[in-house]
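User: Can you fold this complex?
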Amino acid sequence: MAQEEKPDILVYDLGGCEGCPLSILRVYPQLSRIANVYSRCLGPVDLNREYDYAVITGPICLNSVEHVENLKKIRKKSKIVIAYGSCASVGGIILYARGGQEPRPEHRIYAPISRVVKVDYSIPGCPPAPQMLISLINCIKRGKGYFLDLFRAVSYFPKLSGFDLMDEVVLNGLCVGCGACILSCPTNALQMIENRPDLIPEKCIRCGTCTVRCPRFSQLLIRRSKLFEKSRLLTSFER
Amino acid sequence: MAGVQPIVLDVEHPIGTYVNIYEARALDPRIASMRRKGGAVTAILLYLLEKGIIDSVIVARKKKGLKGEAFLAKTPEEVLQAAGSKWSIVPYTLGLKEKLLSPDVRKTAFVGLPCQAQFLRQMKMFPLMESDFSRKIYLIISLFCMGTFAVESFLNYMHRSYRLQPEDIVNIEVVKDKLLIIHRSGELEIDISEALPYLQHGCLTCPDYTGVFADISAGRSPESDYTVLITRNKLADKIVKDAAGEGYIELHEASVKTMDAILEKGREKVFRSYKYLSAVL
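Assistant: Here's the predicted assembly.
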């Protein structure tokens, strides 16, 4: 079999706490075995050329024209855009920002990138563990699978958090008490009370991990995303 | 290790992708003496433990009445003790992480329901957190599941209709389409349709009958007294064959009739989930 050509991956950071870039940094050795990696950590990055994958970390600051334009440019030039980490995919803790962050201290409107451009796959997690990116890219190459559907579904939902988990699953009576969410919460915001999870609102950083891990909510997300795709509401809406 | 085949679950693949479907029965006299049918899962666990392939098993065991708890079994005796159906979902949260992170656990097998298998598989394939602890889980075994009971309301129903005190109920078994309730002063047979309204609502929206996310799915054969084993990757297939080679289980490929029956049940659950999910979309 002929040697498969490596895809080009752009890793681009829009700002934030640097947790996600750091998580990706740790996986560079393995990543460069399956792809050509382009990132500011490895030299200057050219946004005017085409890439197979664009992995974007950090939230988009809606006040910053430069960042929004760069993001749109990346979207146009890349075949597959992956929102990596909670801020880029579902908002995360930065939704609470009241200034003081990059790019400029007075900026305070941050949004997940799927509010600005069409995203193909969204990975929540604060930050996702390094191995995640390799698994995802291998899965995308394979072309189908339950989890691929799930991460594609998340890209349609720019807002997922423990609050949604409570509203859609627990308070809706769908929870069976398996405990997946509690084992997923990075801040211990969820606790088991009488066999059902309960949320401590102050502790929830809106990372969305619990919603993706919940067997019920992931079902719901996939089914809803299929409906969205069918209704073509999203495909006709040029973002 | 999750297999080269992608994990799928839809109407066309109601039991997911698999390598082989077997029917198996435990040959071990320790299991036969427990008057349980099949018993292949217990036998495979004993094989893995006694050959030193794994050092512990996470299973559910009965705590009190119908309530269960997650339990880390380290010896064959403890595994035998935990064998048998549990009738409430076991919240594996309580202590699972601590148990897995303890240094004397290196390689463990997990036995659970499809929803728990899904969660652990996701943790293994797509770790969303640095603190994920699935590294030590060597094998995930999922049991066939048509849904779990909302235990409290079911017990309440039993009390109202049959004057059975919850603490008197020793065990519940499924015999064909009847529920056999064994209590302190005898046995009671009720139709399974009587119990269906007491399934947990979340289970009605779950499409996964066999546990497509597990390495091995296991459940009672609808056609015979054997246990059906579905192996979903090469590692799992090798384990099952080796267990048969070592004389722990008796193994043959599943008949078309059995496979049809399982496919039918799987499809039934997928359609049921579509129906109920559409109510909450």
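Chain B has a mean pLDDT of 84. Chain B is about 35% helix and 25% strand.
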